[in-house]
Amino acid sequence: MIGRPKLVLASGSPRRLALINQAGIEPDALQPADIDEMPLKGELPRACANRLARSKAEAALASVRLDEELRGSYILAADTVVAVGRRILPKTELLDEAAQCLRLLSGRSHRVHTGICLVTPKEAFRQRLVETRVRFKRLSEQDIEAYLASGEWRGKAGGYAVQGLAGTFVVKLVGSYTNVVGLPLYETISMLSGEGFPVHFGWLNT
Question: Which of 6, 67, 89, 171 has the most crowded CB, counting CB atoms within 10 A?
């Protein structure tokens, strides 16, 4: 990878990796941050997404400083929060949680907030928040049961993955689609480019 600065993706999410790859960028390392992702008491969705993205970036920076090969890399972190009004929905691990989320989202609009945090090689922090409005159709019990049986909800904010079967539930989406998947590409690439990362480097050989 001679010829360009290094990029560390502070995430273990296969979706975020696939999205950054879609933009023609191959991270040099993945540094998933082991942080507590529970919202603080009374914390609003936007604030939560921003705080968690920053915490992930800080945790990755601490690791990168100890790694000679990665020191001075760009670090990209993100956190996605799904909310109905002020209520933040969990990243569902249990069937009951996922069922509750789907019933809450059924027939109504919700918002997906992704906080992006970029650390530059000089360790300056740049942050941005992206919001998308999503409206689900009214879900029948059959829709909900079949979706739960698919297992696609596991570990997903709000209990669904828009790029999978739940795409069939979406009546309307206003804003960035890739934001709902987990990493808003336009804003991410704009941030990287604005801080001097050569975003087109990988395009030459595709």
Answer: 89
